[in-house]
Specification:
The structure is a single chain. This protein has helices at residues 37-40, 49-61, 72-85, 96-113, 133-138, 163-172, 197-207, 278-293, 296-315, 342-348, 371-391; strands at 16-20, 23-26, 31-34, 89-93, 120-125, 155-159, 176-181, 211-215, 239-242, 253-257, 321-327, 330-335, 351-352, 354-356, 360-363. The strands form three sheets. A seven-stranded mixed β-sheet has the order 4-10-9-8-7-5-6, with helices on both faces. Strands 1-2-3-13 form a four-stranded mixed β-sheet. The longest helix is centred in the C-terminal third of the chain and has 21 residues, at 371-391. By secondary structure, the protein is an alpha/beta fold. Helices cover 36% and strands 18% of the residues. The protein binds pyridoxal-5'-phosphate.
Length: 393
């Protein structure tokens, strides 16, 4: 089939026309259990009534004005997010990359305000922060940068989960404005750092007077069994970015900041036409209300533990499986060989999964899956891995 869409994605040969809860219906009528959630976007499942009602009501009243004016729904959303995250103020954009762009600009401006002439941002090897020029530069994956030189100056990468390496870089450079990292690597292969790592990074940032920027775009809003993954370690970063699940499919991103840095970007220094418009804000408010009403962190933690235990019971002795890991409903099964083909195998069994970092099956089911659906995911994933093992040389 010829397509008028630029070939930036290697798309699978399937499309969907409707969804309900954890299930998607394809254009040919087939039903698929969704363990991807649009890469941790539709975390309340598809066609959630609270989101549907909020955006349908709002679309009858007002879609958009401009950030030239007061937007009461955006104010309410910012206040709620800030209080959940332990932050003071929020800037809204439309995507993860934009949320991170705001965080990068804020960090550089904070550095400049504090006398830095060439502020540096330290990020992690294996980390992912987006596809714009600044977020691509921040991303610690050389492959996706090929062809886009010259990249931005002012970024240094250190190995993830290596506190000594970070300490050395901070000691060697005087003008570090920020350390920016994911609390669990998502695209990098569901890499969960050692317990205490995030708290140690917080300590180093304090000791070296630089900001700690946590990218919660994939992990935020209950995915790991806490509202924010940094809350597993009782720390508060200076800046936190969000996007993906905030609108359950309605595009919205957020860059949140603690009191001491929330006034760094002043009128004229950053902006977004659409960011936090009434439609997106109404969706995000409905998402937060639903997560709260259903005590979602506890539900995600329980379901995640059950799935992890189920996967371990079935696969721990499987020689093809190198590691089974995760936090909450962000689960990774690392194989000893590349396994992108398992996506099609699982799809043949009417399950949608994702493979990242070549050999890691990534499971990001919606939080509303039932115990039975969680078990179905475990069964099918185990089955396709066992079949691969039988066929492997
Ligand atoms: N940061 C993280 C941790 C992500 O996982 C992603 C997307 O996968 C992004 C940033 C970029 O978000 P977006 O694709 O909305 O620009």
């Amino acid at each position: 089939m010829t397509s008028a869409i630029m070939p930036t994605y290697a798309r699978q040969n399937i499309g969907f026309e409707s969804g309900e809860g954890a299930w998607l219906t394809a254009t040919d009528g087939g039903r698929y259990l969704d363990a991807v959630s649009g890469i941790s976007v539709c975390n309340l499942g598809h066609a959630h009534p609270a989101v549907h009602q909020a955006i349908s009501r709002q679309s009858q009243k007002l879609l958009h004005t401009s950030n030239l004016y007061q937007i009461p729904l955006q104010e309410a959303l910012a206040a709620k997010l800030a209080s959940l995250a332990g932050m003071e103020m929020v800037f809204f954009g439309n995507s993860g990359a934009e949320a991170n762009e705001a965080a990068i600009k804020l960090s550089r401006k904070w550095g400049a305000d504090n006398g830095m002439t060439a502020p540096l941002i330290v990020t992690m090897t294996g980390g992912f922060h987006g596809r714009t020029m600044a977020t691509l530069t921040a991303t610690g994956n050389a492959k996706i940068k090929v062809g886009f030189a010259p990249l931005l100056p002012g970024f240094i990468h250190v190995p993830y989960n290596d506190i000594d390496a970070l300490q050395q870089v901070l000691a060697a450079h005087e003008q570090v404005a920020a350390v920016m990292l994911e609390p669990v690597l998502g695209e990098g292969g569901v890499v969960v750092p050692d317990a205490g790592y995030l708290a140690a990074v917080r300590g180093l940032c304090d000791a070296h007077h630089c900001l700690m920027v946590v990218d919660e775009i994939q992990t935020g809003l209950c995915r790991t069994g806490r509202w924010f993954a940094y809350q597993h370690e009782q720390i508060i970063p200076d800046v936190v970015t969000l996007a993906k699940s905030l609108g359950n499919g309605v595009p919205i991103g957020a860059c949140m900041a603690q009191a001491r840095v929330s006034g760094v970007l002043q009128p004229g220094q950053h902006g977004s036409t659409f960011g936090g418009n009434p439609l997106a804000a109404s969706a995000a408010l409905a998402v937060l209300q639903t997560l709260q009403a259903e005590n979602m962190p506890a539900r995600v933690e329980r379901l995640g533990q059950a799935m992890l235990a189920g996967l371990e019971a079935r696969l721990a002795a499987q020689p093809l499986v190198r590691d089974i890991r995760g936090k909450g409903l962000m689960l990774g099964i690392e194989l000893t060989m590349p396994c992108a083909g398992l996506v099609a195998d699982a799809r043949r069994e009417h399950l949608l999964i994702n493979v990242t970092a070549m050999n890691v099956i990534r499971l990001l089911p919606p939080f509303i899956i039932t115990d039975e659906e969680a078990q179905m995911i475990v069964d099918i994933v185990s089955r396709v891995i066992e079949r691969l093992a039988e066929a492997a040389p």
